[in-house]
Amino acid sequence: MNQTIEIQPSSKKTILFGIFLFSIFLLLYSPILPGMYSVWMFNTNNSHGILVPLISLYLIFDKRKWLHLNDIETSPWGLALLVMSLLLYIVGIIGSVEILPRLTIVTTLMGLVLYHFGRKIFAVLFFPLLFLFFMVPVPDSLTGAVAFPLQLMATKLSAQIINSLSIPVYREGNMLYFANTSLEVAEACSGIRSLMAYLMLGTLFAYMVRGRFYKKILLVAVTIPLAFFANLLRVTGTGILAHFYGSRVARGFLHEFSGIVMFLFGFILLFLLYIALDRKEQASSRHKG
């Protein structure tokens, strides 16, 4: 027998007021959102960001049955978070600190939910809201600072691997020199792009995996060496191909295609780790049962 959920008049007013507040939220952040969308579409380091709101919406939808089990109530802590977030938004706009208003998109939304719906509903929605931080573009200054040492490390290790395969190569900085060609390991080949995407996916898998907390930590922590390993394979493979076929293999379609292939390779490894950890918990639950 199907059960229908009856919404009380007071709840309807609360929901309508919530829609009004969310509309004000969109109006307030309308100067910020187009710029973020532009970064998602044209900056490959942050292209994963466009998927984040969609994933969060799905996670919220998946929690819909739990939302009905909790009463709607206001929370003064939400109002405090909302006021503090809006103050930081104003400071960021006045001071032209681009990252600050973008971060407050998430904190303002969290404050609205906590203030308008209360602690119990906020607790149910906490991770989907927290996950939205992954949609905020990472500043170029930070990615540059991280990318440069990754470039040098990938170049150095790649040169050692290629030399061990009896292919003569000389390394200077982030350049690889072969007998008939040279190859530059640019910032795009540092692995910073895949690192951000893997961190997002690892955090999502950590949320979904069942069992002890160490499994969640492992799924997030493994994304860093995974991104570096996948990128090292890409640089090494490109270097070997450049030795035999010239530097054209590092440009155009082949370069982009190799990036997609290595990202999918890393994603499959991460997904298999998640499956293994989750199945282990399932088997343990059956054994106890």
List the SSEs and their pairings.
Layout: H1 9-28, H2 33-42, H3 52-62, H4 64-67, H5 76-95, H6 99-117, H7 119-131, H8 140-164, E1 170-172, E2 175-177, E3 182-184, H9 192-208, H10 213-221, H11 223-245, H12 252-288
Antiparallel strand pairs: 1-2, 2-3
Describe the structure concisely:
With 289 residues, the chain is mainly alpha-helical. The chain is built from 12 helices and 3 strands; from the N terminus they run ααααααααβββαααα. It has 2 domains: 126 residues, no CATH class; 148 residues, no CATH class.
Spans of at least 5 consecutive residues whose pLDDT stays below 50 are: 1-9
For the biggest sheet, the summary is:
3 strands, antiparallel
Assign a percent range to the helix content.
over 70%
How much is the average pLDDT? 84
Walkthrough of the structure:
This protein has helices at residues 9-28, 33-42, 52-62, 64-67, 76-95, 99-117, 119-131, 140-164, 192-208, 213-221, 223-245, 252-288, and strands at residues 170-172, 175-177, 182-184. It has 289 residues and is mainly α. The longest helix has 37 residues, at 252-288. Mean pLDDT is 84; it is low at 1-9. 29% of the residues are buried. The chain folds into 2 domains: 9-134, no CATH class; 141-288, no CATH class. A hairpin with a 2-residue loop joins strand 1 and strand 2 (175-177). 72% of the residues lie in helices and 3% in strands. Strands 1-2-3 form a 3-stranded antiparallel sheet, covered by helices on one side. The protein is built from 12 helices and 3 strands, in the order ααααααααβββαααα. Helix 9 packs parallel to helix 12 and helix 11 (223-245) packs antiparallel against helix 12.
